[in-house]
Amino acid sequence: MSSREPSSPKFRLRLLPVLIAAVVTSQAQAADLWTITQDALQDNATLDASRSTFQSVEAGRDVARGSLLPQIDATAQVAHNNTLESQEGSGIQGGGAQSGVGSSADNYNATSASLELTQALYDATSWASLQIAKREIDQQALLLQADRQQLLYDVASAYFEILRAYEVLQARIAQEKAIKRQLDQAQEQFDVGLVAITDVNEARASYDLARAQRISAENDLQVSFEALQRLTGKRYDSIEMLSEDIPIEAPEPAKRDRWVRLAVANNPSVQAAQAAVNVAQAEVDQAQAGHLPTLSAFANYDYSDSDQDYLSGHNEGTTVGLQATLPIYSGGTTSAQVRQQTYSLEATQYDFEAQRRDTTQQVRSLFTQVMNDVESVEAQRQAIVSNRSALEATRSGYQVGTRNIVDVLEAEQSLYQAIADYADARYTYVTDMVALRQQAGVLDQGVIRELNEWLKDTQTVKLRLPEDGGMSQVEDIGKRPTMGPSATP
């Protein structure tokens, strides 16, 4: 993969330097966000199921249309007949008594065939069924679009969750090493009688906590890699890191109400809820059509033949005509169906309003969250600077005897917690921006490509499972980066 320079995307983000620790060299090609997104679009079980559902609903249109097109039926029959007559009679004929028995048998073959053509001229019920099928296609297309946008968000979220987990892990590793040095120093001072055993115990307790936090962070990173495999069906051993100079800015447009209007007009879930109302209205029309007459044209052709002894030749005939049917009374079924579908229509209208309100609330909340994320990232960056200064002052105080080891350990933990919080704040901003675009209905592959431009192929996060004999780490093909906003403490 060639080196890329960030363009000027609409989806602008700004992130400060990333936290990177262990550095190794590798020739393996890492996956980027764009590649993983394409893998997901091609082989995601949920999206594939949604596509198949759409195709099934689309085929329903042809099913409904079929009842409005000509219907042709042909029947044919070949039969062998065996008849036996046996009669016995008695009576008086010509002045004398007579009696007798008679019987006859006949075996013959008979054939018959018929051809019938019917064409609906007016059938409001079938026409309404076709309208329902068409509106269901529109609805399912919007649901498919919603599933597609959800997948784009899930992939981006899972990708940046790995980077978040990695940077938190690096903070925990650095914390563990720093506190281990403090423990070793306390042990050496205790061995020569400069400090009490309580300093050693305090340092060991902090070291055990830091070690536990590092182990938990390692687990989080391994689990986050599994999320990508679930989305795409592929395993990724390494992914590219995010550039240090990605911008963190307020969303554009900068007005919350404009995002709300954008969501109401473009959010596929809102549009699908509106489409469901249209489907329900068509179902009401179909139920009401049960009161209307139907008119159809028909044509029949019949042919029959047999080889009975006393018959010869064949019979055939044609019939052409119109047939009208007017429903008079069906036990109240039609009226009940109209009421049933009317209530269903009301329910879908309420569902649409609930979906619109929910989307509006989500967009407002995400917009506010993104605005807060911008300030939070800057605050967390400053917190690192402040905690580093506090740690240096505490160490100096410990050396001259004005501060104790507990103060130093707490300052160490505060610094590395601030580093972890800083990484968390940056990736929270990125994922919240993606979520805001999803709720607004404008999350597409263009957004993913723009985000991908801020990745760099010179630094990658590599997953090393426990059975591989190592932890996840950064592969740095370029220069070694610094850790945090300033030099590593």
Would you give an account of this structure?
A hairpin with a 2-residue loop joins strand 3 (71-93) and strand 4 (96-122). The model is unreliable at 1-28 and 474-489 (pLDDT under 50). Helix 3 packs antiparallel against helix 4 (197-232). The protein contains nine helices and ten strands. It has a single domain, classed as Outer membrane efflux proteins (OEP), CATH 1.20.1600. By secondary structure, the chain is an alpha+beta fold. The strands form three sheets. A four-stranded mixed beta sheet has the order 2-10-9-5, with helices on one face. It is elongated. 57% of the residues lie in helices and 20% in strands.
How many domains, as an integer? 1
Low-confidence stretches: 1-28, 474-489
| Radius of gyration, in angstroms, nearest whole number | 40 Å
Mean pLDDT: 85
Number of helices: 9
The CATH architecture term is Up-down Bundle
Order of helices and strands: EEHHEEHHEEHHEEHHHEE
The number of strands is 10
What is the CATH topology assignment? Outer membrane efflux proteins (OEP)
What is the helical fraction, as a range of percent? 55-70%
CATH superfamily: Outer membrane efflux proteins (OEP)
Strand order in the sheet with the most strands = 2-10-9-5
The CATH C-level class name: Mainly Alpha
**Based on CA inertia axes, which overall geometry fits?**
elongated
Helix/strand structural class: alpha+beta
State which percent range the strand residues make up: 15-25%
**Biggest sheet statistics:** 4 strands, mixed
N→C terminal distance: 34 Å
